[in-house]
Amino acid sequence: MSTLYHVLGAKQFDREQLDRLFGSAKEMEQVAVRGGIQRYPNKIMSTLFFEASTRTRFSFESAMHRLGGRVIGTENASQFSSTIKGETLEDTIRIIAGYSDLIVMRHTEIGAAKRAAAVSGVPVINAGDGSGEHPTQALLDLYTIQKEFGGIDGVHIAMIGDLTYGRTVHSLSYLLANYKDVRISFVSPDNVRIPTYVKQYLEEKRVAYEESSDLEALAGSADVFYQTRIQKERFPSLEEYSKAEGKFIIDRKLVDAMKRNALILHPLPRAGEIDTEVDGDPRAAYFRQAQNGLYIRMALIEQCLGGERQGGEG
Amino acid sequence: MSTLYHVLGAKQFDREQLDRLFGSAKEMEQVAVRGGIQRYPNKIMSTLFFEASTRTRFSFESAMHRLGGRVIGTENASQFSSTIKGETLEDTIRIIAGYSDLIVMRHTEIGAAKRAAAVSGVPVINAGDGSGEHPTQALLDLYTIQKEFGGIDGVHIAMIGDLTYGRTVHSLSYLLANYKDVRISFVSPDNVRIPTYVKQYLEEKRVAYEESSDLEALAGSADVFYQTRIQKERFPSLEEYSKAEGKFIIDRKLVDAMKRNALILHPLPRAGEIDTEVDGDPRAAYFRQAQNGLYIRMALIEQCLGGERQGGEG
Amino acid sequence: MSTLYHVLGAKQFDREQLDRLFGSAKEMEQVAVRGGIQRYPNKIMSTLFFEASTRTRFSFESAMHRLGGRVIGTENASQFSSTIKGETLEDTIRIIAGYSDLIVMRHTEIGAAKRAAAVSGVPVINAGDGSGEHPTQALLDLYTIQKEFGGIDGVHIAMIGDLTYGRTVHSLSYLLANYKDVRISFVSPDNVRIPTYVKQYLEEKRVAYEESSDLEALAGSADVFYQTRIQKERFPSLEEYSKAEGKFIIDRKLVDAMKRNALILHPLPRAGEIDTEVDGDPRAAYFRQAQNGLYIRMALIEQCLGGERQGGEG
């Protein structure tokens, strides 16, 4: 199993691997624009979504189809029948691995993807594990910055919203540690601040960061505004949630104060954190970002199926 | 976007377009009978069913596969994850359009398909929007009449059942207005009569119609009996429903009073409105009608993907 | 319809057919190992799961894809929309048969597959009908014994657990009646003993069997230990269930008392009836068994689509 290429967490990627991945994503964009290729007519990808995520699942399934492959999937996490019957994740994965060439998995528990990879006979891609990681989202976020700016070194990024439960923020922070002179401003309500273990990682990697609760103060200085959704379902109580919701909105007024070439990103779906009146602004890059998800996932599938052999995270 | 070909409502079709579509459907029947073709090996159709409809979804997905294409889908309307998270339909469509070449959509709200088409970068086919329209069903209904009778001009059709909430009846009425000397008898309980806006449309188009609550009186004179299901889920209260249910059944006795070459249609599923003892009668055309749905949908997909450029309804 | 090849129940198979099927499964293993073939690029298989079973569905869908075919499916049994609307199974099947070349069906009611086959225009494979039969599971069980031992004649098999509601045990018993000198030990709690009609069938076919509630006593003598899950959802009450649960576990101690070349099978999922500490033992064959499911189902699909014409069970 040790020779399989899994995508489990953001920390497994170094700069060289990122450069290679982004180069591949760029080629994939050309492939997709030309309508796809029949590269893997016999390969089967399983999408195991123990937690529903239509957008992420569609993105992966579209990526596999654009590469000419096949998909078997379950969209209905909570009704995964053998889990209801008491089966362990390990048993499920052992068997599904025998029916497919690649497993894309979303799960409710931190570390689930790593547990899956440990017993799987085929590559596993983590499509989100609870409040743990969501590496493919962070990779497409980073790819978008690279594509829009031509590079990532020296960027000043404001990450806004629920920084405790927002796993994409964690994964993206880890990835950014591979670049030079990056500066991160974590902007959040007090009750959903960035976790200590993320800050410790950044300190180890000598990444400059600061914490703030004043989004306006950053409007004129940051290059990237990475907005996130206040995830109701991740909050322990409704009280905690109502304290956090709606405090850090990106609207017309804020955008007007931004740099000319600033970039507004959001992993989507949004629920009001970015006002729709901003959509037409060229700095609003979130729909281009979602589209980039297709190319990054094509590139990752290619690496998993194409024989890349560099070991997983673990 | 204005050059994309969307299928949003019955009113967008004129006679010439219907003739062309039915000609294409006839060819598609030959294609399907020969087992399908590999016309769109790289094309992806998204089926977004915000409201479950297994039969309609299967019909579209089979049509796409018979044309050699690919499908990504969600069958689980109410669990569409980003909608739960508060995403607008417009955001969802913008992103899904980036992952596919065609969107087939069923939604609970009137006008949803039109809203989707307004922001979609790819063609949208309305597979039913609330109590609004269901144009592809009406097209296959009409195609069945054309196929069985050799033409539609001069036909006398009785539409029976829930005419308030039965959206296929509305769509079919609009389509029939393209033909000459058509006569429509709307037969329904008092509390679910045909809406005024449908009648006004028919008057504008000079289509002869009448309202009735006596199905037996029409048995010997109508050419087509278009039976519909009393849709429990569309009634505001259980009381309203029980007043309507089961009053207008097509049974052996009624069929015996019909013309020799009459046609019994039903959009299906049925729940007792047509007695199964009628199934073996050659006039019972509802299973042939369901089969025609495959050919009509193949023809519509072909028009959407094949570059037909004649603008949508709006 | 009478010339279609359906897979409805274990009793439809005689020894000659089993030999042929197992020969085909062996070839399919080679096909799958080489990555699959494009044998049915235009064929569509419908998976109608009125009761969720992710594993079984994935196994069939993977099998169809490995043969180059296409799949349209529903994973969400209880939400099958036309059923909710009151449609009969017969109506559903008539229509789905018009959209596909093969129907794989799991249902909650005994006899549902046979009812479907009676009206279907395409072959039907029973993927489990209530507490009735699950023939494809039994076929893969039997194939595993044949593959591991080189033959089935003379085998002594202990079937353990819920023998009343465990439909695979019934189907496997019927299949075993085709072989010589087979001996079956039914090991179960008193309240879930093997049904009388299964015993009567075995007596008619002169198969030696016994009933027991002492698993340990058989440890040293049986060749095959066919463990099953105590299926909570099949028990009429929680009381009945708690009486049965957990009484017949296969653990390290029991395995140590088994013959050197004994075989431990389980249709999976398991929920504790086989201790995971046993997984590494070469006698633990349940994951190899699950993998064999792919090959058996490829062989069955091949028979259904490839023109095998020997009539169904009925």
TrEMBL record, chains A, B, C:
Species annotation: Paenibacillus lycopersici
Entry's EC annotation: 2.1.3.2
Record GO terms (molecular function): amino acid binding; aspartate carbamoyltransferase activity
Alphabetized Pfam families for the sequence: OTCace, OTCace_N
Binding site for carbamoyl phosphate: 55-56, 106, 134, 137, 268-269
InterPro entries in UniProt: Asp/Orn_carbamoyltranf_P-bd, Asp/Orn_carbamoylTrfase, Asp/Orn_carbamoylTrfase_sf, Asp_carbamoyltransf, Asp_carbamoyltransf_Asp/Orn-bd
Binding annotation for L-aspartate: 85, 167, 229
Residues annotated as domain Aspartate/ornithine carbamoyltransferase Asp/Orn-binding: 153-302
Protein name: Aspartate carbamoyltransferase
Pathway named in the protein's UniProt entry: Pyrimidine metabolism; UMP biosynthesis via de novo pathway; (S)-dihydroorotate from bicarbonate: step 2/3
Lineage: Bacteria, Bacillati, Bacillota, Bacilli, Bacillales
SUPFAM superfamilies linked to this entry: Aspartate/ornithine carbamoyltransferase (SSF53671)
One GO BP annotation of this record: 'de novo' UMP biosynthetic process
